[in-house]
Design brief:
The protein is an alpha/beta fold. The protein has a single domain, classed as Alpha-Beta Barrel (TIM Barrel). It contains 13 helices and 13 strands. Strand 1 and strand 2 form a beta hairpin. The two termini are 32 Å apart.
Length: 349
């Protein structure tokens, strides 16, 4: 069905198409019989796919990456597509509009997206209210929820720690794990926080606050694919020294290498992070490098070019414990998660 609708959806501006498809999904899931049918169609009941990572029980290893449901508006609807976990955000303390539109672009020839959204979101208070309401209505849920946190654009880097601490404290009762996003290319200066000294300081502060709760939750670091091997080795050192739970590898790339899309088109689009199939090889390389340096003590969530069972298995074989999707869902449609799980089920361990 989706392959018939996709040409029509792709006639719309990508951001408007996203809003329209999520509205359709929410409307369908609001009708109990339809919601039930969708769960039967897209959700796997295979217990062999469940896995324990970071002290959490995931019904399956395929999750939805941050950015797709920034404000936590569609959790129940997206869960009907079979995800084992959903990551909301990136959220910032204060609501912000993000970068000027247009800011989301498709590269169909590469099954890729370019975005320069700029942490557009309705703010921390709005997300907390939605998550609280969702938790109260879904007390028996097995779905794992992650909270991806960032800083406001106008917050200078020297004050960024407070933004992350504010988001961490407010979200703590409502999410199962946290992701520290210092790797988006679309907030000026943000990637400077990946440098060893400021990053170590930030993570130590978050871990201090985490431990003070008495029941600390997993904290992961989301990194860019554009880091050198030396920088990746430093990331591994930081993960060990701060004792965070692990890494999400990777965010979008600023590279435009080896694309089928003509350079004239990408030049006209301009700045932004590239996601989708072109990121597959590099993100797998990063996962493999980190796993070699980290050993087995840290979790790795692989993201970048995951669109089918083969690409998911590639990440798992490279050392990822879990995988996430984003662009693949746009190109493959709602059956993607079920197809991935069906493909990896015989050999998943």
């Amino acid at each position: 069905m989706y392959h018939l609708l996709k040409p029509l959806i792709f006639l719309l501006d990508p951001e408007k198409a996203h809003k329209a498809t999520m509205t359709l999904l929410d409307t369908a899931c609001a009708v109990p019989p339809v919601h039930f049918i969708m769960q039967r169609m897209f959700c796997s009941g295979d217990e062999a796919l469940s896995t324990n990572v970071m002290g959490l029980r995931f019904a399956n290893p395929v999750g939805l990456a941050a950015g797709f449901d920034k404000d936590g508006k569609h959790i129940s609807s997206l869960a009907s597509l079979g995800f084992g976990f959903i990551e909301v955000g990136t959220v910032t303390p204060i609501a912000q509009e993000g970068n000027p539109k247009p800011r989301l672009f498709r590269l169909p020839a590469d099954k890729a997206l370019i975005n320069r959204m700029g942490f557009n979101n309705e703010g921390l208070d709005a997300l907390v209210r939605r998550l609280k309401k969702w938790r109260e209505r879904n007390t028996d849920t097995k779905l794992i929820i992650g909270g991806n946190i960032g800083k406001n654009k106008l917050t200078p880097n020297e004050n960024a720690e407070q933004d992350y601490l504010t988001c961490f404290g407010a979200l703590f009762p409502w999410v199962d794990y946290f992701v520290v996003n210092v790797s988006s290319p679309n907030t000026p200066g943000l990637r400077e926080l990946q440098e060893k000294e400021p990053l170590t300081k930030l993570l130590l502060l978050l871990q201090e606050k985490n431990r003070s709760t008495g029941k600390p939750k997993p904290v992961l670091l989301k990194i860019a694919p554009d880091l050198t091997d030396t920088q990746l080795d430093e990331i591994a050192d930081i993960v060990r020294s701060t004792e965070i739970a692990g890494v999400i590898a990777t965010n979008t790339t600023v590279s435009r290498n080896n694309l089928s899309t003509p350079p004239g088109i990408t030049d006209s689009i301009g700045a932004g992070g590239l996601s989708g199939s072109p990121l597959r090889e590099r993100s797998t390389q990063v996962i493999r490098r980190l796993r070699e340096k980290l050993g087995t003590h840290a979790a790795i969530i692989g993201v970048g070019g995951v669109e089918d069972a083969s690409s998911a298995r590639e990440k798992l074989d490279a050392g990822a414990n879990l995988v996430q999707v984003y662009s693949g869902l746009v190109y493959q449609g709602p059956a993607m998660v079920k197809n991935i799980l069906k493909g990896i089920s015989p050999s998943f361990s």
